[in-house]
């Protein structure tokens, strides 16, 4: 489990992504990773896919440990692949032809980039709240979703 202070056990940055609180937790994360991960994995290499899951999961977990006290009691640890699962959802949502077409429409009608970024941020908060269970790592889910959307915007995993 990744818990404060995170620097005390740095290896938990990686191991916490693959550890789960039980079979239900593992299955919930596995379903999202399977559904969102298949299209991402199809367009990249195994190494890039695994690196993306590990990096986004670790960054989301680390942010949860650092900032999670803003939305839940401080000092609580985090584990699971849900930050990376949300990152995969964000990637799929942004790195597809429909999202690219929407981006062109937004550009064509002259929406300021700050307004578009605010809209994406508000949508990410809504999705996070709508699809996160009670007591889950909201900060990690939000950060994962935003990391995935940013990576999808630049098509980071495309080969």
Attribute tags:
globular; 159 residues; 68% helix; mainly alpha
Short description:
The protein has 159 residues and is mostly helical.
Structure write-up:
It is a single chain. By secondary structure, the chain is mostly helical. It has one domain. Helix 2 runs parallel beside helix 4 and helix 3 crosses helix 4. The protein is globular. The termini are far apart. The mean pLDDT is 92.
**If you average the pLDDT, what whole number results?**
92
Q: How many DSSP helices?
A: 7
Strand content: under 5%
Sequence stretches where pLDDT stays below 50 over 5 or more residues: none
Helix/strand class: mainly alpha
Largest sheet: none
- Calculate the terminal CA-CA distance, rounded to whole Å: 33 Å
Report the C-alpha radius of gyration, rounded. Answer: 16 Å
Shape: globular
H/E element sequence: HHHHHHH
Count of discrete structural domains: 1
Secondary structure layout plus pairing:
Blueprint: H1 12-18, H2 23-42, H3 46-67, H4 82-94, H5 97-108, H6 113-130, H7 138-153
Helix pairs in contact: 1-3, 2-4, 3-4, 3-7, 4-7, 6-7
């Amino acid at each position: 489990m990744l818990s404060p202070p995170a620097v005390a056990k740095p290896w938990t940055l990686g191991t916490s992504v693959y550890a789960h609180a039980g079979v239900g937790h593992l299955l919930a994360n596995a379903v999202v990773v399977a559904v969102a991960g298949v299209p991402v994995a199809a367009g990249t290499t195994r190494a890039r896919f695994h690196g993306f899951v590990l990096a986004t999961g670790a960054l989301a977990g680390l942010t949860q440990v650092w900032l999670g006290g803003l939305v839940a009691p401080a000092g609580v640890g985090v584990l699971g692949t849900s930050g990376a699962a949300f990152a995969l959802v964000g990637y799929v949502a942004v790195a597809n032809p429909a999202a690219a077409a929407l981006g062109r429409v937004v550009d064509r009608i002259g929406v300021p980039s700050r307004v578009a970024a605010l809209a994406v941020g508000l949508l990410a908060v809504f999705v996070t709240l709508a699809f996160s269970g009670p007591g889950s790592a909201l900060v990690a889910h939000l950060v994962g979703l935003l990391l995935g959307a940013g990576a999808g915007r630049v098509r980071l995993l495309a080969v």
